[in-house]
Predict the structure.
Amino acid sequence: MWIEVILFAAASFWVGLSGAMVPGPMLTVTISDSLKKGSRAGPLVVLGHVIAETTLIILLILGLGWVIGSQWVTMIIGGVGGVMLIYIGYSIARSPLPEEIPGDGEPIEKRGSVLSGIVTSITNPYFYLWWATVGWAFLLKGIELAGIIGVFSFLVGHWGADLGWYSLVSFFTSKGRRVLPGNRYRIMMMICGVFLVLLGIYFIYSTLIA
């Protein structure tokens, strides 16, 4: 059984990694926060994402999966989420150039990055779509395989993929920020901001035509 559990965790890791590597609001926020706060921003964003996913898993277990998968809930999430992403993108694009870039050993705004991870997760309609389909199927397979241990192995693999990828992105982004002159730093932040704004507009548009 233990070999099957380990293989299941490995499969969960690779499935999670394929999703984590797709460009989206969480990746964009990770890059912008890492430029401002350092390499610890990535794991903190993932912590917020884990909090959001844990809440969603509890709702699924309580039998509220039909609510998550309903069309009207998806429309509300898409509309509100789009507005939130536009606001976050606008804030990032207009963020001032820091007078001094903090080092990795210095204090950073922890709650900001954790909150960003929560917001970019719960405002993304595809987050619910994935969990109502692929995520829920993996949870059921884990229960069938080894009960609570199977669920735990799935979460370890899934969250391990998120943590590994976004930590890597955060690390290399934070190393590059020290060689970015003021103008290039502003351009990077504007690109991140504009991307989120466009993504927010797309979420709203896809909701209206659904």
